[in-house]
């Protein structure tokens, strides 16, 4: 079985909490909207005010926040499974400082657009990843025991 009973329970509770917090986040603000009006809007029965405030201002931000959070969680889980270390993260291994060094290096040598600086950060992070991969021994096997 893919998930145990405990895993299913945790996923259901976290999903429910995400839905509740998302609905609450859509309802609060400078112009508070009751939760029942938010749910009416989501069912398609909202008024013109709710259409603008919820549909144009608040709901896209909440959806973006949920999707970005889920993406970061999934990428962290993938990174930890690739490193075979539940404590692994890019900042601990050194990818973040390597990317920052690449961005600063690019900015110092070729000042210009943010695209150029972002490209320098990606190259710096990739160079750090290559160095970390090759450091432990032949082919990144991690046989020296420090990873």
Structural summary, described in words:
73% of the residues lie in helices and 0% in strands. It is mainly α and 147 residues long. The longest helix has 36 residues, at 48-83. The chain is flat. The protein starts with a helix and ends in a 13-residue tail after the last helix. Mean pLDDT is 85; it is low at 143-147.
For the terminal residues, how far apart are their CA atoms? 31 Å
What would the principal axes of the Cα set say about the shape?
Answer: flat
Q: Structural class of the secondary structure composition?
A: mainly alpha
Average pLDDT reading: 85
Largest sheet: none
Considering DSSP H and I runs of 4 or more, what fraction of the residues is helical? Answer: over 70%
Supply the number of helical segments: 6
Q: Give the topology string: H per helix, E per strand.
A: HHHHHH
Low-confidence stretches: 143-147
Strand content: under 5%
Strands, total number: 0
What is the radius of gyration computed over CA atoms, rounded to a whole number of angstroms? 22 Å
């Amino acid at each position: 079985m893919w998930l145990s009973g405990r895993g299913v329970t945790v996923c259901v509770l976290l999903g429910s909490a995400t839905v509740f917090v998302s609905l609450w986040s859509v309802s609060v603000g400078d112009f508070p909207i009751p939760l029942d009006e938010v749910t009416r809007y989501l069912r398609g029965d909202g008024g013109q005010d709710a259409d603008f405030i919820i549909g144009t201002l608040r709901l896209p931000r909440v959806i973006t926040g949920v999707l970005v959070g889920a993406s970061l969680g999934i990428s962290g889980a993938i990174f930890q499974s690739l490193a075979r270390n539940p404590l692994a993260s890019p900042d601990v291994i050194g990818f973040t400082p390597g990317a920052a060094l690449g961005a600063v290096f690019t900015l110092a040598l070729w000042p210009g657009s943010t695209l150029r600086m972002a490209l320098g950060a990606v190259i710096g992070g990739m160079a750090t990843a290559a160095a970390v991969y090759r450091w432990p021994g032949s082919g990144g096997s991690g046989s020296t025991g420090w990873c």
